[in-house]
Each structure stands twice: as C-alpha cells, then as structure tokens.
Amino acid sequence: MRMSRYCVDEDNSIQxxxxxxxxxxxxxxxxxxxEESYHCHDxxxxxxxxxxxxxxxxxxxTYDVEEGDLLLFKPGxxxxxxxxxxxxxxxxxxxxxxxxxxxxxxEPGDIPLPGGGYILHTSGELRQRIFRICSxxxxxxxxxxxxxxxxxxxxxxQLLLLILKExxxxxxxxxxxxxxxxxxxxxVEQIVSYFEDHYSEKISLxxxxxxxxxxxxxxxxxxxxxTGDTPIRHLINIRLERAxxxxxxxxDMSIQKVAAAVGYDDxxxxxxxxxxxxxxxxxxxxKGALIxx
Length: 293
Hints:
With about 290 residues, this protein is an alpha+beta fold. It has 9 helices and 9 strands.
C-alpha cells in the first residue's frame, strides 16, 4: 500500500470555471482484509477498482464491485470495503481524496452518477482513460517537486470531467466551434517548450494532440495563427539551428551523428533540409567555421 500526499443551465451544462476542487491525496492498495470500520468522511473520496473482485457495504446495502468500477463517496456517506476470500483475485483499488467541489444546483461534494447511486460501471474507452489517469496520478505522486500539486489537481479535473461527460444525456458534436476556453498562447508555448526539450526524439503531431486532448487540425491552426508557421516547420527550424551549433562546436562529430542528435535517422535527408534552409551543406558550414577560426 502506498499513500501519496501533497508536500506541504438551463441545458444542464457544466460551468467549468466553477469547478475548483482542492486535491488532498491518492492511495493505492490491494484489499487483504475487511476495512476496520463502517465510516464516513467530510471530504469526497473516489475509489477506482483497477483489478479483481470485491464487495462494499454502503449506506446499509452491500454491492459487488469488480475491475472498472468507480465508486463515489460524498461527504457523510457511510461505507466499508469488504474482503472477499473466495474471489479469485482480490481488489486492487486507487483512491483520490479531495474537497471544495461545488457543482451548480447540487450539494457540496455531490457528483451525479447513474440513478443517483454510488457506483459507475465503466468499460471500453472510458475505462482505459480512467485507468491512464490513475496511473499518471500514481507516477506523479511518487516524486516531490514544486508543481506536483497542480499536476495532480489537473488529473483530478480530468477525472471529474470524464465522469460528468458520461452523465451528459445528449452529447452534441461541435460544428465550427473555436475553443475559446483554451488559452491559445499557452498551448503554443507548451508545444514549443516540448519541441525544445525533445527535438532529438521522434515527434508526431498526432502524439502531441493526443497528450493535450486537442485535435491535430486545431493545434496546427492555432500554432500558425500565433507564430505564422506550422508546428512541424517550427520543429525543423529548431533541429536545424541545433545542428548548425553542433557542426561548429563539435568538429569531430560526423554528419551522420549530428543528424541523429537532432532527430534524423537519414543523414542524406537531413543534409537536403539543411542546405535548403541555410543555402549551404552541413560540410560547407563546418569548413566555413574552420576557416573563420
């Protein structure tokens, strides 16, 4: 078991700006005994069953739980995890504790679940996405750095929004909607920062889009509107500028190694891009630097 704690309407739409929960802790463990007491909290507790089968005693009733089930215990809800010795695999659960959640028209800490119950049964993509968020929170909780609280809170927000989205009765596809809630400048800064830190790696627009929960088309559009250039062209420029520095500073480094150091497996392709960008081949730039010295 391991606990990670921070170091120190009309149309029933969710007002995101009103969601500002306070992240408190995460906990992961495998159930090997009945929980000590039938209890409740003054905070909100989410429990996600990562694997196995078990039971919970909640407000006087017993419920079966299994892999993919998400349980919500709002303040004042009595519950107790039960150990089921006959289960082939005991439950391994991931808990998230938080407070200060107030959704419009609901009691503090109340999040809607199907039928007003305590358990959301997940499957398919939703199950995978929640599992990934839990894994990310566990990894983030394993290190202590100044921004950790905000990262964990961001993951918590993703988790809550996924739960709320699942309860949306009539999700409508967006038509020509500009994501005004997304700070375009911030998105571009994040992409540029990623390029500068990872230019030597294989980078695709699809991967960046997936990690930022935005479409490749939208990322390309706002990047060009903010910088006047496409993301891939900007990445190429960063790579070629770094390559030029290496050619001048590392005289013993072969052209092929320079190409590999800035993310290109094909030295010939790298040389073509370099010459098109600078009007000189990598070898000519290197010779010029030697002459200047």
